[in-house]
Amino acid sequence: MLDFDKRVEALLEWIKYTEDDRKPSTHSFISPKITVKNVEDSGRGIYAATASGISPHELIMNIPHAFLLNFTTVLNHIAKFNKMELDRHVYVPYDVKEDEFTEIYKQLTKPELLRLSSFQLLGMYLTFERKRPHSYWKPFIDMLPEMGEFELMPIRYSQDLKRLLPDTTRQMNDKLEKRFENDYDMVVKLLSSKTTAETVSKLLPKEEFLLSWLCINSRCLYMDLPTSHESSDNFTMAPYIDFINHSCDDHCTLKIDGRGFQITTTNSYASDEQLFLSYGPHSNDFLLTEYGFTVPENKWNDLDISRYILPLLKPATVVDFLKDADYYDTYTLNRDGLSFRTEVALATLQESNPAESRRLRALINGNIDSTVYKRHSQIVLAEILKKVIHEAENHQYLEFANDADPVKQAQMRAIGSLYKDRLLLARRVLEQKLDK
Q1: Which contacts qualify for 399-408: CB closer than 8 Å, 24 or more apart?
Q2: Is Transferase there in the keyword field (predicted)?
Q3: Which of 93, 283, 345, 385 lies in the 20 to 30 Å Cα band around 420?
Q4: Which pTM was predicted?
Q5: Residue 299 contacts residue 274 (beta carbons within 8 Å)
Q6: What is the pLDDT of residues 358-381, one digit of tens each?
Q7: Got the DSSP string for 298-331?
Q8: What is the CATH number of domain 4-64+239-290?
Q9: Under the phi-then-psi rule, with left for phi > 0, alpha for psi from -120 to 50, and beta for the rest, what region is 330?
Q10: Where are the domains of the chain?
């Protein structure tokens, strides 16, 4: 594969043109004030390239729809081989070359494709296109990560390391793995109706589909699509834009219109300063599970203490009340204190007959605050936080783990960082909130 700078150059050249006769695009725009750098330890990112820096509210990118990889564009590309009739059209090059993968495209019908989710369709398509030497998407695909760049995601951990994850992270990862397995099975089922099991295994190896799936999961951006089945299908992959890394604070804004996907700065940037997007208010548990990184002192970290509260919810009348009121399970706290769900659960523990309690109903309805329940709630919460701290302290060694395998060492240290987050947050709430 070409070196990094050559691949970036090829990507820029590709985005610059849209027509078969190589006419420049009227919508493509990447500001000369930005550049891509691949920095050791932090990876690729977008940086201010000029001595004068970048001002707030500057348009720095517009990527036209022809270069966005999503359900709609994939349908249009596949339609070039099987003549599907589509309601919405985007630019697709006409110099398409046929091969063993396009033979599969020819057999896929519109109803079959529309039954797939965006993850399933794009996962299959990206896996196929990665192996097609003349793919229209080759400049974009050549810039996507290799599997080694996802090694910090728990989905790539050994079973022994997965067992060391904090319970909430492990639950997140279990859901992620189930989503992947379901998506792979659905695509294999479709392809198996078109060709032999041996051919499916050759064209769509599970590990290759996983790489495509992780690229999609870690690089998709929200975008309304007419073909989406549900909100989770409303996403697109956007070349060059996907170089922008995450910050807990908003640094740039996104906008989608008829011209394409646009990025505008919110802040000013000095020369050689990295630009950021916010992927959302996500904790480090979520960021590690979905993207494979964590943020030091992440302000969005929280603690799910459901496993400690649920066993306390006795007798059955307490559980029934919380379920009927839709306040059962998912009890969290963050650096600002308890979630309202958690306050309600701790308050309910103090009522002998919750269903008949006027003050509990007043709390749920917002007519009173939780002050009346505070003293006893703090006693229960203090005991819970001490258990969280004890568990985190028992796993502190992971943060400084050493192993002959550098990948395993990095994975162990990533797990250790999650326990450190839990330790710091529990101590903060215990010391700052319960003392008041």
Answers
A1: 407/151, 408/158, 408/161
A2: yes
A3: 345
A4: 0.90
A5: no
A6: 999 999 999 999 999 999 999 999
A7: -TT-EEE-HHHHGGG--SHHHHHHHHHTT--S--
A8: 2.170.270.10
A9: left
A10: 4-64+239-290, 69-237, 302-433
